[in-house]
Amino acid sequence: MIAPAVLLALTSLTETALAHGGIWNYSIAGNWQPGFFPYYPAEGQSSIQRHWIDFSPIKDVTSFALVCNSPGSIAEKYASIPAGGEVKAYYPGWPHDIGPIVVWMAYCGSEPTSCDSFNGTGKYWFKIQEVGLQSGTIRNGQWALKDLLASNYTWTTTIPETLRQGAYLMRHEIIALHVPFEPEFYPECAHLWVTGGGSEKPSEEYLASIPGVWRQDEPDLHMTIYEEPTSSRTEWKIPGPPVWRGS
Ligand SMILES: [Cu+2]
Fold it and tell me: Which domain holds residue 169?
């Protein structure tokens, strides 16, 4: 459900802004959770999502905004979810169909509000899901973003079953690859309180720093999908550490 005032704000957006997007809301272990509405004052909003100002992509891979968007200030709330539970993220009107989706988590601490004092920078991030090019070619194949469009703008992720209890940032990241040599990063973060589960945490080889994990000279990100030899390639591997699934 979108508040009328938010609809009003959104209809006044330029076409440029509407060519982008992000996560508006979540369903966490079956419970509807509000995201932060960009283009609308922070005052009076209460969300599980870190604040973001607009739909624009982040293009500077060294920017603090790459962590949890801009300004990325802390969320007011946490959503509780058992390890093994399901998170659905909603991207209403998402416009792009070439590129992967990567979902990351970072441990904030053992207290239910530990993320309040964690800005997200540093080598704390681990992937729990990544979907890139599943079949076909880079130019026309089945990218994660096509799955997102085909599933009514909904992206589903399962929290690893054996993950230790604690407060976590969950970071969804779309990387749109339709602009030649200019990958667009769309990160948003949610505050989670993960319960039950096990006692596991990812080892060093699974961890990455954000910013830091993506590089300006990374050929599989800074490329053009429109020209050979790239466009007809059928293999594309997302850079960064392997996905952690627990044992
Ligand atoms: Cu866009």
Answer: 18-209
Q: How far apart are CA 192 and CA 170, in angstroms?
A: 7
How far, in Å, is the centroid of ligand 1 from the Cα of 235? 24
Mean pLDDT by 10 residues, the chain (247 residues): 51 60 97 95 95 96 98 97 98 97 98 97 98 98 98 98 97 97 97 93 97 95 96 96 95
Q: Is residue 181 a part of any domain in this protein?
A: yes
Q: Which pTM does this prediction carry?
A: 0.93
* Gyration radius of the chain's alpha carbons: 17
* Domain tally, the chain: 1
List the structure tokens of 107. Answer: 């441990």
CATH of the domain at 95: 2.70.50.70
Q: Residue 22 C-alpha to ligand 1 middle, in angstroms?
A: 10
CA of 15 to the centre of ligand 1 (A): 10
Q: Which residues pair with 87 in a beta bridge?
A: 28, 157
> Cα separation of 75 and 71, whole Å?
11
Distance 39 CA to ligand 1 centre (A): 16
Which tokens belong to 127?
A: 């992937």
Residue 19 amino acid letter: A
Residue 240 lies in a domain: no
Distance 153 CA to ligand 1 centre (A): 15
Residue 231 lies in a domain: no
Q: Quick check: is 131 in a domain?
A: yes
Cα of 16 vs centre of ligand 1, distance in Å, is 8
